Amino acid sequence: FSPGLLVVAGSFAAFRLLNRGLERLVPPPPSARRNRWKWRNIWTSLAHSALPDTHNLSPCRFYLHPELSNDLVGAHPPGAHSLVAVSVGYFLEDFVDMLCNQKLHQSWELLFHHSVVIICFGIAVLVHQYIGFALVALLVEINSIFLHLRQILLMANLVHTTCYRLNSLINLGTYVVFRIATLAWMTRWLFLNRQNVPPATYAVGTVGMAIMTPMNIILFYRLLRSDFFK
């Protein structure tokens, strides 16, 4: 039994409670009241992406712990294991939330995405290895802040505002840096270190990258077309 599972369970419960209480904390505007669960879901996702001392500080962790750059398998700084476990709990909560409140044909892409993340991060939590690799993957969540803000502004009917336009520009910039470039670096690292990774784990990582990379490129094209090509 891994103590990390307790952190996962606690994180799941905490995000579930947050989701239930968010409508009181952030009441939905009239334009979002027809889809209240989605309003709560996006704010919960934003809370995960913007957690202090987690994803926002991931770049600092690599600066303060340079050994991470050389060993993404065994090395990890204090608290990193719990950080990854907290994220597993969030992705499980979001998976359950979408499964219960959204039709499958509307959410299958995100459910598929979450399944891959839960499996990959779950392995890291259980075996206490690849935590550094998971931290690199969490850099993606820096862009998620602006991605979720975009959805909130859309639901609040604030598309034709300076705030939305500015967020769109930052969103695309951070998307290229923290999603596409990060995934490309992770794929390269897997290829160069295939001899240091067990075959089963290497297969899971390779399949995960093969799924995530096209999904993120397609989403980038959709964002570009929606916010700048129309």
- Can you give the helix content as a percent range? over 70%
**Poorly predicted segments:** none
- Characterize the largest beta sheet: strand count, sense, and whether it forms a barrel: none
In DSSP terms (H or I, runs of 4 or more residues), the helix count works out at 10
Large-scale geometry: globular
Instruction: Tally the structural domains.
Output: 1
Notes on the protein architecture:
- The chain is an all-alpha fold and 230 residues long.
- It has one domain.
- Helix content is 78%, strand content 0%.
- It contains 10 helices and no strands.
- It has helices spanning 3-25, 36-49, 58-64, 67-70, 80-101, 104-127, 131-138, 140-155, 162-192, 199-229.
- Helix 1 (3-25) packs across helix 5 and helix 2 runs antiparallel to helix 8 (140-155).
- It is globular and about 55 Å long.
- Residues 34-230 form the TLC domain.
- Keywords: Membrane, Transmembrane, Transmembrane helix.
- Pfam families: TRAM_LAG1_CLN8.
- It is found in: Membrane.
- It is a multi-pass membrane protein.
List the helices and strands and how they pair.
Elements lengths: L2 H23 L10 H14 L8 H7 L2 H4 L9 H22 L2 H24 L3 H8 L1 H16 L6 H31 L6 H31 L1
Helix pairs in contact: 1-2, 1-5, 2-5, 2-8, 5-6, 6-10, 8-9, 9-10
